[in-house]
């Protein structure tokens, strides 16, 4: 294995098309990484490559990126790694292997573990073990409330000191207004975002899909769009009073987008209200439940919405309202998903499909540019989370992703490196795929 635990190297990445929106750059460039940091990015560093080839490179490794796109390392800001406590679903090793295979150099790990990541000892464990065993860097997200119960504020200060970069109760909405208010106020001391799963649990009830024509036709309990919009509206009112950084995870409705746009137009809140979206909400609708014959791979939270909501998400992706694309990687043991739709857990895997789906169905289809793709998967997530990365400018971390825009792939769950197998995209034929990752100047290589 070659991952974050290895010592930083000296690497010359040659001949690639560098796409870096942080520098407004889309051109052929050579990139030099020394001691884990980008030190040069030039049209040609041929002399260095020639010295390395002659054996005078002083340990310099040359990576030929001809025909590939080179981007700042991709970052997933919402990943369930399941460890500690749920290792039968995923581990730090299998989750980061999936991340690296999917083109990600870093992931933000959700706190819904056992015990929950609501105190510094769990943050420290995740950081230590992922550095020792992982194939991608792991940024821990701390719980907003103790035990994710939504009752008492967790010790944010201790977790930030230990390495937590943001706070969220993962799949559990922060229901009580006073708890959200105090979280927004307290988080400002550490300049970290509060990430909300926007859902009114009483409205969603026991729903298994979007409430609409399809749920009525199928006779299944639905989750109304109002459930999301109400929580976003409430939180934005609180945010207007408190300030801080507020992020909406997996936005999926027209109404929530409308509220977010209004808030973002307020100059006093510029840059403090952000959101992300998943590829499954961009590419699929609630019709998939019927068309895939009640497959549990269509059971996600928030649910797959109607075409009206999907089109609104695509528009928001293109016009800049959305800050990031996220996999929302939520692996379960195959036996847990091989049950009736009504009792199956919510969630699908996404780390190994997101890049190809986005390159084929968004970039190739003309919905977004390649530069916007990089912004959504690297520059944007780094900005939202306030972590290093998202750029290949000199002085930036030596983390990068290589893309092959012409590689044909077929989504095959049997080949996933994740323990999870559930995906609604099985069998999809796509063009474009990750071609490798580099962390701190070291290409990530997998054990056999």
Set out the fold topology.
Elements: E1 11-20, E2 25-34, E3 37-42, H1 46-53, E4 61-64, E5 69-72, E6 74-79, H2 92-101, E7 104-109, H3 120-133, E8 137-140, H4 156-162, E9 167-168, H5 177-187, E10 193-196, H6 201-204, E11 209-210, H7 213-218, E12 222-223, H8 226-242, E13 245-248, H9 254-264, E14 273-277, H10 279-283, H11 287-291, H12 307-319, E15 324-325, H13 334-337, H14 354-363, H15 370-385, E16 400-410, E17 429-439, E18 442-443
Parallel strand pairs: 1-4, 1-5, 6-7, 7-8, 9-10, 10-13, 11-12, 13-14, 14-15
Antiparallel strand pairs: 1-2, 2-3, 5-16, 16-17, 17-18
Number of strand elements? 18
**The biggest beta sheet, please?**
8 strands, mixed
CATH homologous superfamily of the largest domain, by name?
Metal-dependent hydrolases
Number of domains: 2
Cα distance spanning the termini: 9 Å
> Strand pairing plus helix content: what structural class?
alpha/beta
Beta content = 15-25%
Low-confidence stretches: 1-6
Give the averaged pLDDT, no decimals.
95
The CATH topology name of the largest domain reads TIM Barrel
CATH class of the largest domain: Alpha Beta
CATH architecture of the largest domain: Alpha-Beta Barrel
Count of helical stretches: 15
| Cα radius of gyration in angstroms | 21 Å
Helix content: 25-40%
Structural summary, described in words:
- Helices cover 31% and strands 21% of the residues.
- It is of the alpha/beta class and 448 residues long.
- The chain folds into two domains: 11-70 and 399-443, Roll (Urease, subunit C, domain 1), CATH 2.30.40.10; 73-385, Alpha-Beta Barrel (TIM Barrel).
- Strands 1, 2, 3, 4, 5, 16, 17 and 18 form an eight-stranded mixed β-sheet that branches.
- α5 links the parallel β9 and β10 (193-196).
- α5 packs across α8 (226-242) and α8 (226-242) runs parallel beside α9.
- The radius of gyration is 21 Å and the shape is globular.
- 56% of the residues are buried.
């Amino acid at each position: 294995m070659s991952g974050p635990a290895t010592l930083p190297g000296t690497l010359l990445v040659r001949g690639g098309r560098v796409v870096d929106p942080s520098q407004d750059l889309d051109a052929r460039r050579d990139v030099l990484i020394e001691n884990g940091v980008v030190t040069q990015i030039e049209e040609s560093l041929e002399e260095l490559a020639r010295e390395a080839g002659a054996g005078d490179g002083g340990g310099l490794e040359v990576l030929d990126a001809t025909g590939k796109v080179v981007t700042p390392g991709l970052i997933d800001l919402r990943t369930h790694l399941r460890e500690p406590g749920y290792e039968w679903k995923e581990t730090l090793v299998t989750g980061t292997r999936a991340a690296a295979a999917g083109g990600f150099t870093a992931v933000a790990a959700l706190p819904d573990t056992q015990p929950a990541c609501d105190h510094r000892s769990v943050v420290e464990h995740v950081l230590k073990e992922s550095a020792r065993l992982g194939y991608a860097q792991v940024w821990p997200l701390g719980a907003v409330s103790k035990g994710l119960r939504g009752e008492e504020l967790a010790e944010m200060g201790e977790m930030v000191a230990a390495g937590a970069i943001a706070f969220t109760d993962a799949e559990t909405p922060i229901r009580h207004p006073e708890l959200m208010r105090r979280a927004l106020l307290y988080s400002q001391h550490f300049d970290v975002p509060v990430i909300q799963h926007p859902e009114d649990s009483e409205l969603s009830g026991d729903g298994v899909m979007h409430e609409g024509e399809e749920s009525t036709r199928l006779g299944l309990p639905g989750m109304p769009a109002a459930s999301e919009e109400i929580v976003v509206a409430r939180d934005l009112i609180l945010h207007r009073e408190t300030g801080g950084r507020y992020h909406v995870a997996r936005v999926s409705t027209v109404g929530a987008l409308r509220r977010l746009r209004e808030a973002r137009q307020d100059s006093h809140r510029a840059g403090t209200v952000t959101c992300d979206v998943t590829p499954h909400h961009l590419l699929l609708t609630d019709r998939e439940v019927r068309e895939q014959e009640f497959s549990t791979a269509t059971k996600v939270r928030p649910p797959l919405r109607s075409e009206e909501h999907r089109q609104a998400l695509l528009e928001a992706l293109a016009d800049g309202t959305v800050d990031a694309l996220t996999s929302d990687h939520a692996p379960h043991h195959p036996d847990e998903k091989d049950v009736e739709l009504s009792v199956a857990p919510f969630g699908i895997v996404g780390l190994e499909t997101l890049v190809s789906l986005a390159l084929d169905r968004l970039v190739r289809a003309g919905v977004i540019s390649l530069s916007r793709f990089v912004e959504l998967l690297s520059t944007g997530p780094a900005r939202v989370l306030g972590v290093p990365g998202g750029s290949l400018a000199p002085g930036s971390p030596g983390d990068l992703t290589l893309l092959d825009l012409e590689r044909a792939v077929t989504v095959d769950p049997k080949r996933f490196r994740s323990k999870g197998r559930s995906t609604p995209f099985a069998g999809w034929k796509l063009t474009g795929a990750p071609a490798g990752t580099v962390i701190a100047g070291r290409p990530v290589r997998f054990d056999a």
